[in-house]
User: Fold these one by one.
Assistant:
Number 1:
Amino acid sequence: MPSISHSFDSSTWIESWIEQLMADRDVPLLFNPTLTPTKTSKRPRHGDIDDDLTTPRPARYAESQDASSVSSSSTKTSSASRGSRSPRKKEFALRTTTNFPVDRRDISDMPQDIGENTLELVGDLQEIGNGDRAVIPETFRKSVQRQSGLRRAPDRWFHPVPRTTATQNSEAAATGSSGSVSNTDQEEDMLDPDGRTMLICQHWRLHEIWTNTKTCERKMEHEPAWNDSVHAPILAESIRGHNAVHYRNITCCRVSPEYRDPDPLLGDNKVDYGLFLSQHPSEHNNPNDSLSHSPDILLPCSHIQLSDGAPTPLAVSIETKSLRADGIGGPSQLANWVRAHFRHLALLVERAGGGVPLPVLPVVFVYGASWRVDFAERRDGKTVIYESVVVGSTKTLQGCYQVRAALVRLGEWVDKEFGEWWRQLGSWDAVR
């Protein structure tokens, strides 16, 4: 068998072939010997002709009336479908539906009879958001001033920490001279029993969240990038060590069909995160114990379909949007979502025999770096939403501390007030 010579340069041959194709644009690129180039009549672009001089072509529209009708119907259907998903139209539908329509009010219009615990929570969050509560350890004053570009940060931002022999070195351990976080913490800090090492680690993590926020803004990142590098880390940092409360990413969790809105224009909604009551292991050794196994109330303890069916009630719903999105869609999603949440809680109260008022539910909307808390309640046949308490922004290091403090306070509400509501319901012994 004759041998095949490989002495030619393959790259040179390919380049020559490409040059030949470029030289003759009429040669088809498909390797089909029966394919021949066909001449097509070129029509001038509309931009080359004055619109007033163009003439209508009725014959084209008369070619197939049936096809035109189908196309028109399809276009209308598609347009209507897109319109129903419009955030503005969805918000309008929420406000005009007959099933507990949404009534948005300013937080200053919140009535005094809403409950002392709710009023106290609102006041605490406003204090945090206004910068009137000390949320930063005094140890990191210089670091915060340097990162914020302030010559002197307000004293009300900082709270004292116990003084030890390691205090004078903790600032250097937390931040280097360039402002970046350093790993050179002293051995005496690692052994410090007053928790100073934990504060340094916390400061390092918040510093990283602040840096990631600037990166997301600079790159104009989409929502998943914000969630991965900013929102989830600060949620984890805020709930760290809290045995009674945990957070979950529930982006893929749908509302159970029986709690969805009957209005087809509203239907189902999803949100990104939730703060949940945790099952305490010392009180329930069986992880399958839940409201669905209660002889009194044959209902799950949440209105959504969690991947593992965990018996953990949802307390605070959180929706996030990047700066690429408008500011209407997120609050509309939360409003529709919390209406489904109330349907579930109302059914629980009904099955329990009544007598327990529905709780006021905080909902959190995160728009880019900014975090705000609204409050929803059922009142006079409406879903009233009081908005908005801006608690902070991860765009600054001080803002990261504010957001963390607000989430810690919400975690306390979940544990105490929301947990107490479940105890009054008398149907979930795992909450304490």
Note: The radius of gyration is 30 Å.
Number 2:
Amino acid sequence: MKTSFNFNSLNRLALLLVSNFGYLTSFDRKHARQNKNYLFAFLLLTISLSSFGQTQKNNTENDERLPTLFNHFYHHQNLEMNYILENQIDLSFIREIEHTDLEIITKSDAANYDTYLLIDFIEISDNKATITYNVFTDGKLQNPKTITYKLTDF
């Protein structure tokens, strides 16, 4: 579940909580403002930490799925090339794939190879994975292809 807050809504929520929903005397308002600032800081810290924790968990789970996903993708697409061009995507997970002859090459070395794979985009969200890739053969870059997988299928 994704929840978004902005500073203004948090500030109003903090004031509402410390003011007993509006029932304050003039003496209590002075103390309520001070308590509101403390509560506002606490709410901001709590929301920030909970959001960070959820993001880290999802990224870790997705990182663990990448080798399996890529292995399935590579064999399912019948890609027979052994070279993958290093792009803006972190391809370190390829080293975790067992029984593979895949090698990551740099852009400066790409001219030395007739055929290689260029991964443009990899995304895993919930139970869906999307991979966009190009194949370079005979001096030409083919049209990009996008493949989507349900992660529950494998």
Note: The chain has a mean pLDDT of 76.
